[in-house]
Amino acid sequence: MKVLGVSGSPTENSNTDALINAILDATGAETEFVKLSEINVGPCIACMKCVQTNECVLNDHFKWLSKKVMEADAIVVGSPTYYGAASAFMKAFIERLYSKRHVKLLMRGKIVATVAVGVAAEKMVAEWMGNALRAGGMEIVGSMTAKGTPCCFVCGPGETCNYTVWNAYSKELTGMELGVEEAYKGYLELLPDNKPYAHGSAKFLKSYRSVKDELLVMAEAQRIGKLIKERIENSKMIAGDSKCKC
Ligand SMILES: Cc1cc2nc3c(=O)[nH]c(=O)nc-3n(C[C@H](O)[C@H](O)[C@H](O)COP(=O)(O)O)c2cc1C
């Protein structure tokens, strides 16, 4: 039983990586973790040369990675949220899976779990990844999102910057209740003179949010890992039964 994790986060030891690895560990399977930022997988160029062969002709690490994807019983894909979307690394990887769709739908029934980490828009990323992979015939058995570290916690001028993340995602500016203030309660204190896009004023109580400190989040990752294990075992049992001639 093989499970492959693919991370679209370029950050070292990121929260996305931590959740993918927690899911992989909980499967109890032979696992492998690939960080897209450490290899070279570019975007699809729509040449359509994969149409009859299901092989992408571009000469980069997708050839190597797609072999691993095809061999895995399940894959766990995870991305941070960048501009309300998956990272460009993840987007390119999913675009390139297009080569497996044509005519034969080679990824049909592949067991997949998705992970999206962000500050406010991670649910949009989870939804997009799920839709894109489902369109390739894959079966999403689990999908989770988690709050990560806002860049403003680590960039330097965050506490006083006019364009801080919590102001950019505030109800005043977006007209939506994105729950940033609530989610970062123990991490951030907005000071009374803070005014979205006019004057940033906050105090950081913690500079990094690690999903490893979030017990419910880690428990969800473990639950998804176990679910993957069960689904693989069931599908192997069904495949075994269908071969039985007795
Ligand atoms: C270029 C860039 C754009 C970002 N845009 C968003 C965004 O639109 N929405 C959001 O919720 N978070 C956004 N973030 C914050 C990241 O999603 C957040 O830092 C997340 O924790 C990163 O996950 P990771 O540490 O697992 O890589 C952005 C971060 C970067 C670097």
Residue share in helix: 25-40%
Number of domains: 2
What are the segments in which pLDDT stays under 50 over at least 5 consecutive residues? none
Bound molecules: flavin mononucleotide
Q: What tags apply to this protein structure?
A:
binds flavin mononucleotide; Rossmann fold; two-stranded antiparallel ribbon; alpha/beta; 8 helices; 246 residues; 6-stranded mixed β-sheet; 19% strand; 8 strands; 2 domains; globular
Question: How would you describe what is shown here?
Answer:
It is built from eight helices and eight strands, in the order E-H-E-H-E-E-H-E-H-E-H-H-H-E-E-H. By secondary structure, it is an alpha/beta fold. The chain folds into two domains: 2-148 and 209-243, 3-Layer(aba) Sandwich (Rossmann fold); 149-208, no CATH class. The strands form two sheets. Strands 1, 2, 3, 4, 5 and 6 form a six-stranded mixed sheet that branches. The protein has a two-stranded antiparallel sheet with strand order 7-8. Helix 1 (15-27) links the parallel strand 1 (2-7) and strand 2. Helix 1 (15-27) packs across helix 8. The longest helix has 29 residues, at 215-243. The chain is globular. The model has no long low-confidence stretch (mean pLDDT 94). The structure holds flavin mononucleotide. Flavin mononucleotide is lined by residues 9, 11, 14-16, 80-84, 117-122, 148-151.
Task: Furnish the topology, listing elements before pairings.
Layout: E1 2-7, H1 15-27, E2 30-35, H2 62-71, E3 74-82, E4 85-86, H3 88-96, E5 111-118, H4 122-135, E6 139-147, H5 165-168, H6 171-174, H7 180-183, E7 188-190, E8 202-204, H8 215-243
Parallel strand pairs: 1-2, 1-3, 3-5, 5-6
Antiparallel strand pairs: 3-4, 7-8
Helix pairs in contact: 1-8
The structure holds flavin mononucleotide.
